[in-house]
Amino acid sequence: MSSCLKDKVVVITGASSGIGLECARLFGSEGACLVLAARSEDKLLALSAELVSTPVLIVATDVSLEKDCKRLIEKTVERFGRIDILVNNAGLSMRALFRDLDLNVIRRLMDVNFWGCVYCTKYALPWLLERKGSVVGVTSIAGFKGLPARTGYSASKFAMNGFLDTLRTEHLYDGLHVMTFAPGFTASNVRYSALTADGSRQGETPRAEDRMMTARDVARHMLRGIIKRKDFVILTPIGKATVLLSKFFPRLVSRLEYRMMANEPDSPLRPRREAGK
């Protein structure tokens, strides 16, 4: 894959940490011109300092705000004159039962995960069509099968998947590449920053991060998918099995999901033996 992205202009949202950060490092090493977007300008500046041989533009962006997304695309075109790849990676998670949940948490997740993708894609689309470029949406297995105690997260990812699938069909014959990218559980800060029932940050992870796929590996899979112009990339054996089996045995998959999530430390779900009490 040496220099496979040479001189391609790549916009990455959520670039300050996790998958977005590793995409920036990898894509930069492959010759891309990078536009890095996230809320933390300080973190973006620190990342850009690493990428000394890569043309980099940083744009402080809150993707939940349409005006910020519009500005991101305008700044990109002003600097580079084109857009080849848009990676909609910015995302937010949650962990709470719906019955306990402040509805503002769901609104926040929809604003970031769904509307952030819609806003950025809307303003980048004319430029991507001109270049027959790629739109990547970093979704989740939770966008294919509802995940208990993640109602807002699953809803936002289902919406994102539907948006990307429709966009792909609308542009089936004009050269636009749309990739739905579901990495499964990945070692990152997404669970630390996940929202609880009242909207406060969780601050810790309930899962063994060291046993998960690394963000660097996820970035490599994404790059391969972009190069091969794949429609869907679903990672990890559990992720692939969940998507496949839920089509034929949805009740079984629901039971397995419940068991897995109920066994997390401090899970809001009760074990099966207590659930009916």
What does it look like?
46% of the residues lie in helices and 14% in strands. With 277 residues, the protein is α/β, with parallel strands linked by helices. It has a single domain, classed as Rossmann fold (3-Layer(aba) Sandwich), CATH 3.40.50. The strands form two sheets. The protein has a seven-stranded parallel sheet with strand order 3-2-1-4-5-6-9, sandwiched between helices. The protein starts with 8 loop residues before the first strand and ends with a helix.
CATH superfamily: NAD(P)-binding Rossmann-like Domain
Structural class by SSE content: alpha/beta
CATH class value: Alpha Beta
* Mean of residue pLDDT values: 91
Descriptive key words:
277 residues, alpha/beta, Rossmann fold, two-stranded parallel sheet, 9 helices, 9 strands, 46% helix, globular
Layout of secondary structure:
Layout: E1 9-13, H1 18-29, E2 33-38, H2 41-50, E3 56-60, H3 66-80, E4 85-88, H4 103-131, E5 134-138, H5 151-170, E6 177-182, E7 186-187, E8 213-214, H6 215-227, E9 232-234, H7 237-248, H8 250-262, H9 272-275
Parallel strand pairs: 1-2, 1-4, 2-3, 4-5, 5-6, 6-9, 7-8
Helix pairs in contact: 1-6, 3-4, 4-5, 7-8
